[in-house]
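Morning!

As promised:
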Amino acid sequence: MQQEWMMRRNCALTPRQFVMAYALLCGLSLLAALPFAVVGGAWVVLVYAVVEMAVAAAVFLHHARHATDREHIALTDSGLLIKSIDGGTARQVLLEPCWVKVTPPANARALVAVEARGVKVCIGRHVSEAARRRVALELRRELQGRSLVAR
Amino acid sequence: MSNTVSGDPLDPPHDRKHGPVHGPAGGDAHAHDHAHDHPHGVRRWLMATNHKDIGTLYLWFSLAMFMLGGVLALLIRVELFQPGLQFVQPEVYNQFVTMHGLVMVFGAIMPAFVGFANWMIPLQVGASDMAFARMNNFSFWLLPPAAILLSASFFSAGGATAAGWTLYPPLSTQMGIGMDMAIFAVHIMGASSIMGAINIITTILNMRAPGMTLMKMPMFCWTWLITAYLLIAVMPVLAGAITMMLTDRHFGTAFFNAAGGGDPVMYQHIFWFFGHPEVYIMILPAFGIISEIIPTFSRKPLFGYASMVYATGSIAILSFIVWAHHMFTTGMPVTGQLFFMYATMLIAVPTGVKVFNWIATMWKGSLSLETPMLWAVGFIWVFTIGGFSGLILAVSPIDIQVHDTYYVVAHFHYVLVAGSLFAIFAGFYYWAPKWTGFMYNETRGKLHFWSSLLWVNVTFFPMHFLGLAGMPRRYADYPAQFTDFNMLVSVSAFMFGLTQVYFVLFVVIPAIRGGRKATAHVWEGAQGLEWTVPSPAPFHTFEVQPIVK
């Protein structure tokens, strides 16, 4: 039997929808600024609109880069597989369940520490403290259950 | 078997008109408040990244600015109590008028609504915080320096700017350093607004709880989403206008200088292209607040939710094509006058949809008139008066007659005081128990409402008559024939001001200090995620993702 946990940010929009929202923003701002620059000679308005859109783009990019960040934990017969996607970078660690030690977060900012035979992975950066604690407890319980079955 | 845990927190039973929610019971889920997890003292406020703290900061800042703007208004009314010059010289009087407008628009009303947005949007969409918490902090902390710049300009050589809040050239190009201080202050406040708008858009669009589709969103979120788009569209226009003015003043350009080949009327076009949407920036969130309160105290869902959303969008779109109705007297072709006249009248349609929908929501509802509802109903009445006088002013031949008279002053004060400010009060009474954890004193709240309603009408309604009789605005003196109405208006303005002092001392402060404990679901008929968290809302909310069905 496979047990899985997925910890991710809540994103109500798909990346495509997010780009559309930004495009609408640009469209509106430029629609307002362009006539002033072209017809009225008030090119300063266009400069501000472009600067504003650049700031919005930077902020949205920062947000979107991490919008799909997630951590996927799968406890299978072959081991405890932890996959993490962070800003487009994927990392994957396979641990042997019988050696795994799970440490719940010590405080609100701390992460869940999962370690086995010198390999330590911290998980739960995308979710709240309560959710981290819950995952830590569930993971512990599942690991203990498996080790009992194994014995 | 698999579990999915989403980063934006968590909570309970909700049934916002179109969509119930499920989850654990609100109060229990937040029993652990993490009160020990966040900084205390000055650092809590200076380094604040929590949306509730930043919302509180915005609201206090706005209150302080209301006080400053209110004192300036009363200084104006003192001078106008009698004809002749009693207390101040005309140039100082014009500084009061200008600063009153700037302080109220940029320092009081806009930040008040941003304060509401900070507090309520994450709670209403089921998010743990705003999308960009640090930028949120920066947005707020830009405001105090801007306010200091504005206020300190009174003490600069030549005093504060006296060109009117519209800062029209050539007056504005001839002022002293106070004008430059005002330009920088407006720039800073504009930057703050843009960052706030980006934050609000991202939070609303991307951090909604699973299941909360756009058409299930609370109206307050909808009105703020549209307002934020308006802000993004028009703030560069304002920034451009005042930058060109700055370069005209100091760097030899002649954008608005006719002697150098420029055109001062061009400034008016640019300013009002910003200025008219700005009016809606100050009223759309008010519509959102009223749309939350009316259904709650009617114990019915909002009538015509979808039409309310479309009406809000229509108002925002129309706001871009009506700016020149502020400029009928500058001279424009008849075709232009007709276009702007009819386009302006068109706004009455979506606005009417809103007013009729609010009335239809109340129709056959189980109404109860607690203080928030009184303010909301009062808002509908007095805002409609302001709306109607706006419709009258849209008629070009009439506008040309009453342009720059007290009729216009009466109109926009009915919209901004009786409209925006009443909605701010309504929102305060509605959500304050959620903020403070204590119920305000209902009797005092009602007294505040009835006193404000009386004095706001006695203050601003006679201004219609003064305007129709020809009394111009922005003058420190007037002919003796206007004395009686001006005396009445001045006395009433002081009564309105005293009523607001009563509000702060006998409603706000006691409601913060203590009182009857508020429950999580403060109002029997209230719907929405914000009522699923305990009162006061804990520092961290929605640690378990709510799901809207």
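Residues 3-8+70-144 of chain A form one domain.

Hope this helps with the figure draft.
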